[in-house]
Design a protein that fits this description.
Strand content: 15-25%
Number of strands: 8
Shape: globular
CATH topology: Catalase HpII,  Chain A, domain 1
Distance between the termini: 52 Å
Radius of gyration: 19 Å
Strand order of the largest sheet: 4-3-2-1-8-7-6-5
CATH class: Mainly Beta
CATH architecture: Beta Barrel
Number of domains: 1
Order of helices and strands: HEEEEHHHEEHEEHH
CATH superfamily: Catalase core domain
Largest sheet: 8 strands, antiparallel
Number of helices: 7
């Protein structure tokens, strides 16, 4: 077998069957968990807020970074959805991963997969973990089976020594957080940055991250309330970065459970202006938005097995969720 190259994908046998099985599992889980008309997302169902934002691409980027969305100094309008990661809605006081989903609007050329919102978009799905611990479709299917069916069906996955490193990673990045605007967020999975032979991961990091203490007795929705309070009076700013792959073995495309150690490079700034967003209309809008890494410019095509899983799963589940809720996809307003 020839050596792996930078940015090279290598789909394993049986992946399509694993993806089909996962879609069936997730649909059954959603149908069981929610009454008709109330279906939320399979993952990240608890939304803290959906806020207006703008992504400004830095001027004078190096040529190898000046690709796709980052090819020119420009400001794009965007939506940002903050969330908790677990599939069940739970108190913000519990240890968890957190999510920041960014939808950049009017990106110029058609996305790889059309966004129901009706304009070309570039979505960035980020969490507080730099890895997606299942790693590939087969492990994801096995973990999901245990997650959906619960005890004792999760025991074979938990007691398999081959899964212990991935389980440890999951626990490592589940934390009790104090403030969503002081956290760093990561894509976990790789994407193109230009043509063949390129791959990067994305990250958003707060420009200012003051030490914020958790409440002594945190309320179930205290993270949302802190977001409301902060944005009522001031902006929030994140630097947006890319992490180019430098070693195809140590920084694999097909295993998202491996942390990349290559340096990050700043390519822009994400600014969330002061605003009032905690309204019924905005909550409905945020719940009906559809996010997918495949709402993407071809220049930033998602790479690897987990992203191939997401393409099929997100499309199927978004349609299923909207069908169950009986609504049409959100418009820009």
């Amino acid at each position: 077998m020839p050596p792996l190259q930078l940015g090279q994908e290598s789909p394993p046998p049986g992946e399509a069957a694993d993806i089909t099985a996962m879609i069936a599992l997730m649909k059954a889980s959603l149908a069981k968990r929610y009454a008709p008309g109330e279906t939320l997302r399979q993952f990240h169902p608890k939304m803290h807020g959906c806020v207006r934002a703008e992504l400004t691409v830095d001027a004078d980027l190096p040529e190898h970074l000046r690709q796709g969305l980052f090819r020119e100094h420009k400001t794009y309008q965007a939506w940002v959805r903050f969330s908790n990661a677990p599939p069940k809605v739970q108190s913000d006081a519990k240890a968890s991963g957190r999510g920041m989903a960014i939808k950049v609007l009017e990106v110029g050329e058609a996305s790889l997969v059309d966004d129901p919102i009706g304009v070309p978009t570039q979505d960035f799905l980020l969490t507080t973990s730099p890895v997606l611990s299942p790693g590939n479709a087969r492990n994801y299917r096995q973990a999901l089976y245990g997650l959906v069916h619960g005890f004792p069906h999760n025991l074979p996955y938990v007691f398999n020594p081959g899964n212990w490193r991935r389980l440890a990673l999951t626990l490592r990045f589940m934390k009790k957080h104090a403030d969503l605007l002081t956290l760093s967020y990561f894509s976990g999975s790789p994407f193109r940055l230009g043509g063949e032979g390129t791959a990067v991961k994305f990250s958003a990091r707060p420009l200012y991250a003051p030490l914020v203490e958790r409440p002594r007795r945190p309320a179930p929705d205290f993270l949302r309330q802190r977001l409301v309070d902060h944005l009522a009076t001031q902006d929030a700013t994140f630097t947006f970065l890319v992490q180019p792959q430098t070693d195809p073995v140590r920084e694999p495309i097909e295993d998202t459970s491996r942390i990349w150690h290559a340096p990050f490079y700043r390519v822009g700034t994400l600014r969330i202006p002061s605003q009032e967003f905690d309204t019924e209309a905005r909550r409905t809008f945020g719940e009906n938005l559809s996010f997918s890494p495949w709402h993407s410019l071809p220049t930033h095509r998602p790479l690897g097995g987990i992203n191939r899983v997401r393409r099929a799963v997100y499309e199927e589940l978004a349609a299923f969720r909207m069908q169950q809720k009986g609504v049409e996809p959100s418009s820009l307003q």
